[in-house]
Write a structure and sequence with these properties.
This protein has 651 residues and is of the alpha+beta class. The chain folds into 4 domains: 79 residues, no CATH class; 162 residues, no CATH class; 181 residues, no CATH class; 173 residues, no CATH class. It is built from 16 helices and 24 strands. Strands 3-2-4-5-10-11 form a 6-stranded mixed sheet, with no helix packed on it. Strand 16 and strand 17 form a beta hairpin. The N and C termini lie far apart (67 Å).
Length: 651
């Protein structure tokens, strides 16, 4: 009897093995799954089950036209180790180095990061005692920051000149808005048939518009969602006919009249409570859009208030996409967010365009605002990981490389002021070149016009590095104004770009001009987003003059600052005229942007950490703590005993 049972068990085991092997044999890869209609997250799950290497999956997704940022984030979510997080980010940055900041930020926002503060940085552990002359800066890397840390360490090896971009991107990405203003759908619940509604109102391939008597948003994104309660369908698309999706887009108005409460009369209520999602468009292809309506009697600054859209997919309780909203909303007006590739009838009404905006298959779209209580939790960990990623060495007693010294010197300069209020957006020329007795700076140009090469998509944020004029600029004769005021970029991958210094004129007498190009996906109003120019004319690190920009610049437009006594040809194209624009003998021009108050403390945290540690002597950074709340592993501390002490000799 026992023998018969054993035979049966063996037979069943062989059958299960055969079936499993058959399933594996039927698997044709990521590209085949995507071509068969699977979503990237579904294709990633199958790839993981079939034991594909994370970096290879990123490559295959990109080969199938999945956006590079979404590909890396999807893989980092699905795979379970820091090695895979590292590998997927590294592959993504190799494929698209100009989007390194977006890639790192996308993995930093993964809630419940599966990297989970594992012992990823094995090579940074102390396998032997360090000599007393080598110290180490201690930086605890919590679980919530482990994906960000792994991502930055991977990316920094490929693009060491983009550390400021990546750290700032992580700070912004981690600063998730805390207060729900409105929502569609239900977070964590997958809609049946991948769209909401099963009665009269559905959201599949349709224009969903808020009923005009709805005056406040749905503050609970976790409750059951029924679109029939406050929405109606318009312009539904069928196989036999197509309708204009832009009907009523950008024109929403409320007809309800709420009785003002005593608190409202005393202006104690938050105006954001009268901001609602008023229209939702889920069209074919890139025809995706969302309309917001400001029902208050006050202007709302979406950027200053940290308004964000979160899009949730596939039953997850963390967003697959977070969109930072930027712009001003007048009272009783609308604001339209649309895909950057949407058809003309939608894009013509868009106030902000977003790359790869996806609503199909979404569980929920949530509008949030406000700031959380710990926006800087990963600031120091990000910098520590960046330092750790530069010029790694397996030799614990190796001297620090010149590249690492230069890198540390640069970030010290960038974050050395604990009261820093602005971040560098772009620069022209070089400052601090003679700080250590090097050859003194020379003027950017003398008696010439220079224009940015049209393929340049992002600014030079490192104002103290060596400046090569011919790398990104073309030089023209003195007082050449022929094409001034008409710059545009070509073949730039749509990404989170900022303003760009596009033209610089240092001509005869007062013929001075600086042109800036707006390569972002939105118009910029300098009254709400503060930018300023710093002009350096001497051989020190203090600007001779600071010019705050005043006015507006359209999306894809230019903003010209000219000397108030320049020739008429320059003054005619100028958006701002000032006598402070003296470019004679100018060593460097730096464009800066004032950061939100919430981010100033992040910069201060970084500066304090840098100043509190002798970075020039560090060999390795403390690896992630293994258990959140317990602190670093004592065995990783090079000091004697659990209570610390002097560094011990290896002898």
């Amino acid at each position: 009897m026992n023998k018969l049972l054993i035979v049966k068990l063996v037979f069943v085991s062989l059958l299960v093995f055969t079936n499993s092997k058959s399933l594996a044999d039927d698997y044709q890869g990521v590209q085949a799954d995507l071509n068969n209609g699977l979503l990237p997250v579904e294709a990633a799950k199958r790839a993981h089950e079939n034991e594909l290497f994370s970096a290879d999956v990123v490559q295959q997704m990109v080969d199938s036209d999945v956006d590079i940022v979404k590909a890396v984030q999807t893989v980092a979510r699905e795979w379970s180790s820091c090695d895979d997080t590292y590998a997927s980010v590294r592959k993504g940055v190799q494929l698209s180095s100009d989007r390194a900041d977006e890639i790192v930020a996308s993995v930093a926002t993964i809630n419940g990061c599966k990297c989970n503060a594992q012992s990823f940085w094995a090579r940074s552990r102390l396998e032997q005692r360090l000599r007393p002359r080598i110290q180490r800066a201690l930086a605890e890397i919590s679980t919530s920051c482990s994906c960000a840390s792994a991502g930055i360490e991977a990316a920094i090896e490929i693009v060491p000149d983009k550390v400021e971009d990546m750290v700032d991107a992580v700070i912004v990405a981690k600063n998730r808005a805390e207060r729900t203003i409105d929502s569609i759908g239900q977070v964590g619940v997958l809609p049946e048939q991948k769209f909401w509604g099963d009665q009269l109102v559905k959201t599949k391939d349709t224009n969903l518009i808020r009923n005009t008597e709805v005056c406040s948003g749905d503050y609970n994104e976790l409750d059951e969602f029924d679109p029939n309660n406050s929405w109606s369908n318009q312009d539904k698309q069928t196989d036999s006919a197509t309708f204009a999706y832009n009907r009523d887009l950008g024109t929403h108005k409320l007809i309800c009249e709420e009785e003002e409460t005593k608190e409202e009369e005393e202006e104690t209520e938050n105006d954001s409570e009268k901001l609602i999602i008023s229209q939702y468009i889920e069209g074919q292809g890139s025809d995706q859009a969302l309309e917001l309506y400001n029902g208050s009697d006050k202007e709302i600054d979406l950027y200053a208030g940290n308004y964000q859209l979160e899009v949730y997919f596939h039953g997850y309780d963390f967003p697959g996409e977070v969109i930072q909203l930027k712009g001003l909303m007048a009272p009783q007006s609308t604001f339209v967010v649309a895909d950057a590739q949407a058809s003309s009838d939608i894009s013509a009404k868009a106030n902000q365009k977003v790359n790869g905006l996806i609503f199909k298959g979404a569980d929920a779209v949530v509008l949030k605002a406000g700031f959380n209580n710990s926006p800087c939790e990963c600031a120091v960990a990000s910098i520590a990981s960046a330092v750790n990623g530069i010029e790694k060495s397996e030799d614990k007693n190796a001297e620090m490389s010149q590249e690492k010294e230069d890198f540390i010197k640069r970030i010290e300069h960038h974050y050395d002021n604990t009261n820093v209020q602005a971040t560098v957006v772009d620069s022209l020329g070089r400052i601090l070149a003679n700080k250590d007795g090097e050859q003194k700076d020379v003027p950017v140009v003398e008696d010439a016009t220079i224009r940015r090469i049209e393929t340049v998509c992002k600014g030079d944020r490192i104002e103290m590095d060596e400046f090569d004029l011919n790398k990104e600029w073309q030089t023209y004769a003195i007082d050449n104004f022929i094409d001034s005021g008409s710059f545009s970029t070509k073949d730039c991958a749509a990404s989170r770009k900022d303003l760009l210094l596009s033209e610089y004129i240092e001509g005869t007498e007062n013929n001075a001009m600086i042109e800036l190009y707006n390569g972002t996906d939105r118009p910029i109003d300098f009254s709400s987003e503060k930018y300023f120019l710093e002009l350096y004319n001497d051989d020190d690190d203090d600007p001779e003059s600071v010019i705050y920009l005043d006015g507006k610049v359209d999306r894809g437009g230019v903003f010209v600052v000219a000397h108030s006594d320049a020739e008429e040809a320059l003054r005619d194209i100028a958006n701002q005229k000032t006598s402070e624009l003296d470019l004679e003998n100018t060593r460097a021009v730096v464009l800066k942007k004032v950061v939100l108050p919430a981010y100033q403390s992040c910069y201060a945290d970084i500066a304090n950490w840098i100043q509190g540690n002798d970075l020039k002597n560090i060999a390795y950074i403390l690896p992630p703590q293994r258990d959140p709340g317990t602190g670093p592993d004592p065995s990783d501390d090079p000091r004697d005993g659990p209570d610390g002490g002097e560094l011990a000799s290896p002898n």
